[in-house]
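Listing S7. Sequence submitted for prediction.
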Amino acid sequence: MERDQLPWLTVAEAARLIEGKAISPVELTRAVLDRIEKAESKVNAYITVLRERALEEAAQAERELGRGARRGPLHGIPLAVKDLFYTRDARTTCGSKVLADWTPDYDATCVVKLREAGAVLVGKTNLHEFAAGSTTNNPHFGPTHNPWDLEHIPGGSSGGSGAAVAAGLALAALGTDTGGSVRSPCSQCSLVGLKPTYGLVSRYGVFPLSWSLDHVGPMARTAEDCALLLQALAGHDSQDSSSADLTVPNYGAALAGGVRGLRVGVLGEYLEQADQEVADLVTRAVGVLEELGAHTEAVALPQAREYAAAAGNTISWSEAASIHEEWLRSRPQDYGEDVRARFRLGAMLLAGHYHRAQRLRTLVQREMSGVMQRFDVLVSPTNPIPSPRIGEQVVKLRGREYPIFGPKATMPRFTRLFNLTGQPTASVPCGFTADGLPVGMQVAGRLFEDAMVLRVAHAYQGATSWHTRRPPI
């Protein structure tokens, strides 16, 4: 295989080639680092590239594999993590001026698990400052550009991770998701992104935005790759008070089940609220699931429609304001304008507002629990619109203008709900607009049935080829 083709391998493909000694970890890592050198100036996916350390880790993996000590499918695979994950050997900026030069003295649990699996960490990716937004227009490190069209955003807040994988600057990456920040970049960059069940993956050593809504998840080209990463990441962590103590299933083995006979609930209201091109592409994707043998039925969530946005905003900004209270008082000028405004808004909310939002969250969770007794998964568009242009403040949707920022922000409209409920939810590529911008279909399952979500995404990818396309960069 030509060296310049190596960065476009899936994790599963690369793992098989490494195991068969067709390529080496050093060869693969050098190819990715060379790709970063060529394309990073256009994409701005990284805050920190760990070139020398990555080559050292790749060489170590090569030595281990050479003596037959294979740790698993991630051994020797070059990956990236969002720059919220603590790394003891590299700065963790959180995309901020406040922590621009901070290097933690320990690794996040997820980083520890990736290292234990033999993965090679090539860098720390750009993000919306402190993960508090959906564009990755970072005022301190510059905006990240969407590889499918450099004038457009890659989504956020994990936009650097999404752009890195889409542009061939990493084979996969980790992101965080508080209101859609793994799924939205994957929708807008034509990737698969999984927000696992709340508590399945440790958040210890990941700088929080909202402790009751934050999730950590994999971002990759395929559902199979996400399953491989989730296998390494999932499991109880005593250092994370929200971590679930349960037996981790074999996510890779569960992919083969297909969708025949599954009950799929289609969130019709979300289709009606989405851009027409987005709605049409997702409707066709639902048709593919039907052709594969799934039974589909329209479903409505009136409690979620009424309360999810208000509850999600109130909870997330209240918790964020609490986390940033001291810095907001002592260093307000070091925050970007949009993020500072959001955190200050959160600081103005009262305890009564927060408690009411949590009660509304319970109503939404109860409604969802009842619905999920009837369905194996729910599907909808991931985002209402394709990727906006960098710098746009408002977007048009079905003849009306909506803000990109603020309490009525457009992008989290369909994703935020599943942070409130904690359900496993993925975005899978389902087509492109006439302008060549990617669109994703969202798949949500029952709590701790992450394998089912990945199974549906994998079956859909097996019947389509959207995920095999490469961006023009």
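Caption to Listing S7: primary sequence and predicted structure tokens for the chain studied. The mean pLDDT is 97. The two ends are 21 Å apart (CA to CA).
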